[in-house]
Amino acid sequence: MSTNKAKKAAMEQFKMEAANEVGVTLKQGYNGDITAKQAGSVGGQMVKKMVADYESRLK
User: Fold this and answer.
1) Burial class (CB in 10 A: 0-12, 13-18, 19+), 21
2) Taking Cα atoms as reference points, which of 37, 8, 38 lies closest to residue 23?
């Protein structure tokens, strides 16, 4: 598996985990049928997790 494919797969998994945590059901591939609120919830959860990870590395 190329590095780029591995990175894409890891980001997809991360997105799916974040969506699950906020109660949004995503499909593999296109998810243009979800609301802006749902998409924002997923993105916000992803950012929260990234910030928490970064802060834990600073300690």
Assistant:
1) middle
2) 38
- Global pTM value: 0.85
User: Do 47 and 18 touch, CB atoms closer than 8 A?
Assistant: no
21 vs 4, 31, 57, CA distance in Å? Answer: 26, 17, 22
> Among candidates 45, 23, 46, 48, which has minimal Cα distance to 34?
23
Residue with tokens 């243009």: 32
Instruction: Give, rounded to a whole angstrom, the gap between the first and last alpha carbons of the chain.
Output: 33
Question: What pLDDT score does 53 carry?
Answer: 96
